[in-house]
Specification:
mainly alpha, 6 helices, 2 domains, elongated, two-stranded parallel ribbon, 132 residues, 4 strands, two-stranded parallel sheet
Length: 132
C-alpha cells in the first residue's frame, strides 16, 4: 500500500470510533491529507468503516439511521431560485453544490438541504460516496 493510503488510513483510524466515522471527520481527513473527499470515501469503504452524522442531515442519526433535516420555515427567493435552477438542470442538487453555496454565502448547509427537502428536490452525489 502506498504512503498516501497509509497516511489516510492512519488519519481515519485516529478519528473513527467503534467502526464509524462522522462526515465532518472524514472530510477533515481528506483536507488534511490533500486528497479528494471521494478518495477518502474509497479508503473508508476499504477499511470497512461506516459514515455517520451527515452534515446535511440526510443519514446516520440514531439506531435507525434516521435523517436530521433542518426544515426552514421560510425559504428565501434566492435559495428557492437556486434549488429550482439545479433541479431544472439535472433533476437534483449535489452535496458539493450545497457545501459550495453555503460556504460562499455564509449559509447553513443543513438549512440548504432542508430547503431542498421542503421543495421536493433530491440531494445526490455525496462527496464521500455514501449515496448516489
Amino acid at each position: 500500500m502506498g504512503l498516501i493510503n497509509e497516511a489516510v488510513e492512519q488519519g481515519l483510524a485516529a478519528v473513527a470510533r467503534e467502526g464509524r466515522i462522522s462526515c465532518a471527520a472524514a472530510l477533515a481527513t481528506a483536507f488534511r491529507c490533500g486528497i479528494t473527499p471521494g478518495e477518502v470515501g474509497d479508503c473508508i469503504d476499504a477499511m470497512g468503516l461506516r459514515i455517520h452524522s451527515c452534515q446535511l442531515g440526510l443519514f446516520g442519526y440514531g439506531p435507525g439511521k434516521q435523517k436530521r433535516i433542518l426544515m426552514p420555515e421560510v425559504i428565501s427567493d434566492e435559495v428557492a431560485a437556486w434549488v429550482s435552477r439545479c433541479a431544472e438542470a439535472k433533476g437534483h442538487v449535489t452535496c458539493e453544490e450545497i457545501f459550495t453555496r453555503a460556504k460562499g454565502e455564509g449559509l447553513s448547509r443543513a438549512l440548504l438541504a432542508g430547503a431542498c427537502e421542503k421543495t421536493g428536490v433530491k440531494i445526490r452525489e455525496c462527496q464521500l460516496g455514501a449515496f448516489g
